## 1
Amino acid sequence: MKDATRLTRLGRPHDDRGLVNPSIERGSTILAPSAAQLYNFPEGRPHYGRVGLESQRSLRAALCELQGGAGCALTCSGMMANTLSILTAVTAGGRVLVSDSVYGPVRGFVLNTLPRYGVTATFYDPHIGPEIEGLMTDDVQAILLESPGSLTMELQDVPMIAEIARRKGVISIIDDTWSAGLTFKPLQMGVDLAVQALTKHAGGHSDVMMGAVVARDEVMADRLREMERGLGIVTAPDDSYLILRGLRTLELRMQRAAQSSLRIADWLSSRSEIGSILHPAHPSHPDHQLFKRDFTGSCGLFSVTFREWNNKHSIRFLDSLDLFGLGFSWGGFESLAIHCDPQLKRSTSRRRHPGALIRFSIGLEDADDLITDISQALDKMSD
Ligand SMILES: Cc1ncc(COP(=O)(O)O)c(C=O)c1O
């Protein structure tokens, strides 16, 4: 079955009443049929609201099926999915290797919070390649990948790193939000835990925040569940329903945004102001070969550098855009743009692309309208 078909069928209700979507059940208390069953609920029946009711169960099952995983934890945000996956993998005295292009707040968590629990972090250049093995000293317990990386969009050789990690007994984790687990299948490439900010593509309508961690095998799923339960994580039934609803149209929306973003990237590449097009699906992207090898499609999120610009130019450009909103999320129906330089932090890797960095999230508008908008904003730069 292809994913487009799978997305119309996964996460159906667990009963036989014929509805194609799960019901939104609200509840904390669930009464036991008898005292004898209080500590021994009937098979498959939740015993308390926190373990998740119908919509959460359906969404977890759907994400496992889409990504080929053995277990799934839902979290209140994509950020929390990242922290949950790290906490699942590390113990005091351990070390985590972190891609230098990781999502900014995760950088903050591993630098500021993990040391309080006796865990240290070492950043590595996302382009380190097989030399990553040299960093996997005995205290390394986990490696955190993000591909493409936040803002600068580097691709990592995920199967190679996952194989080295497995050989060294290191748990591999990837923030795979860019592909939504649809156009790239990290668990099938040997990664242990795949993180999704469901807030982005799966939600798709900029009205819900949620995250998920999907585990590759039963052992990792048990470990993940233990940490999820230990932290008392629960998501709202309504929000879980909205994410599942978003999954139905995920492929269509991503394809449309991918097509438009590539067209806009191509148009931008002919402009003299542009330095680099950091769109993995664009042939000029430095890691385009990896994209062609590992991905079946892209999405609306990409960055570009403007060779001669500084932050002031970026601000002027953004303020001249009409159709693009200025906001931090992405993967929604509406196009957004941000300038990245104020939040761009790197520990090991050099800045490869000089100039000001702007990130676009292309939504469902007509691509020609978006090009017209960017074009008029660029024209104003020379006024
Ligand atoms: C790559 C990536 N991962 C995780 C997150 C966090 O997701 P959330 O905003 O749902 O916490 C973001 C948010 O922008 C992101 O870009």
## 2
Amino acid sequence: MSEVTRVVNSVFNSCSYVVGDDERSWLIDCGDVDSILPLIKGRLCGVLLTHAHFDHIYGLNQLLSIFPHARVYTNAAGREALLSDKLNFSRYYGDPFTLLYPENVDIVADGQMLPLYGDTTASAVETPGHSPSCVTWIIGESVFTGDSHIPGVKTVTNIPHSDKDLAHQSEARILQLAEHRLVYPGHAAPTEL
Ligand SMILES: [Zn+2]
């Protein structure tokens, strides 16, 4: 895969990542659009969401107003949270967010593969626990874990709709998948396990 470019966003230092080639770009999570825009080459095809907590999604309305054809990939719980400032927690942080473009959302299931660009595909791995909306994305030698696994940090499971046991199971699955791959977490720096 070509290189992965990271943006550290202003809200909670969440990370967004840009991957792609000269013609097609893809985003993993969407925070500060003004920082993301200069990194997009060619067409922005879509956004792969690691989960629908507000710090990972808050730029989506601005982004989709600029790229109305971009798709947003998440699971069924993620779609629900995109449409609810209660479920995505934004209402508790004084900046309520609900997605204005629900027709752009595509729901993915565990194991689903998406063609991204060239020979590169993304596989969706549902990793619930931190949130029911958690999806880990495998793209070539890279694993985008969101908040399901942040190396060196205990997975947060003391928030509404989280589940500690599921989080442990998901993390074990991620650690297997991450062997010989580079982990790009939802916060903090990329890490080789
Ligand atoms: Zn989160």
